[in-house]
Backbone:
């Protein structure tokens, strides 16, 4: 993992919250699972067309 991305260096921890809000606004979904090498793997899915 990139050490510049560590919470030790600050950051507000808003990344996933922002992702969730943007994805929800577009009627998509966010899924998380354990990554095979440790950590987490996130999948963001967005629809190709606007819902009618």
Residues:
């Amino acid at each position: 993992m990139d050490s510049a991305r560590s919470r030790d260096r600050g950051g507000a921890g808003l990344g996933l919250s922002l992702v969730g809000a943007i994805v929800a606004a577009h009627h998509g979904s966010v899924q998380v699972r354990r990554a095979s090498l440790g950590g987490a793997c996130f999948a963001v899915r967005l629809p190709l067309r606007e819902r009618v």
The radius of gyration is 14 Å.
